[in-house]
Amino acid sequence: MKINWGTGIAIALVAFMLFILSFVYKTFTNTKYDHHIVSKTYYNDELNYQKEIDAEQNLENLSSKIVLKNTDKGVEIIFPDEFKDKKLEGTIDFQRSANEKLDFNIPINVTDNKQFIQDDKLVKGIYIVKINWKTDGKTYQFKDNFYY
């Protein structure tokens, strides 16, 4: 059987397309490649975006910023001095964009302007830290990437 150059090009194109389609198929059907978004409530999050902007602006107006520090036993969160004797109500979220099973959320429980998070909740890697709190009728929000 003799194959001319036109038939050879057609066979090569079909083989290449099958090769690419097999990778696409494997990527979408294999559970090893977990496709998820960071937030399952992204639509509601978008509607509340202006409130987040206002809360972040309230944080920017403070004299000092929140500090996250790695320690031998976990993470220490130091709040600004303006909140020293105030009751803070809110939550601290640690999110891993690579694995949602490592995400966790804890309530704010500040002692002496600091909160400590034990290392048994944390796994080495990059977290998206989001701290939301309210005091004296004002809301505040802190967001940052943090390597533990």
Summarize the structure.
The protein is α+β, with helices and mostly antiparallel strands. The chain has 3 helices and 7 strands, in the order H-H-H-E-E-E-E-E-E-E. The strands form 2 sheets. It has a 4-stranded antiparallel β-sheet with strand order 4-3-6-7.
CATH class of the largest domain: Mainly Beta
Number of strands: 7
Rounded to the nearest angstrom, the radius of gyration is 24 Å
In whole angstroms, the N-to-C terminal distance is 64 Å
**Low-confidence parts:** none
Separate helix tally: 3
Helix amount: 25-40%
CATH architecture of the largest domain: Sandwich
Q: How would you describe the shape?
A: elongated
Q: What is the topology, as strand order, of the major beta sheet?
A: 4-3-6-7
CATH superfamily of the largest domain: Immunoglobulins
Strand content: 25-35%
The succession of helices and strands, N to C, reads HHHEEEEEEE
Average of the residue pLDDT scores: 90
Helix/strand class: alpha+beta
Number of domains: 2
Structural features, described:
The protein has helices at 5-29, 42-47, 49-60, and strands at 67-71, 74-78, 89-95, 104-107, 114-118, 126-135, 138-147. The protein has 148 residues and is α+β, with helices and mostly antiparallel strands. A 4-stranded antiparallel sheet has the order 4-3-6-7. A hairpin with a 2-residue loop joins strand 1 and strand 2 (74-78).
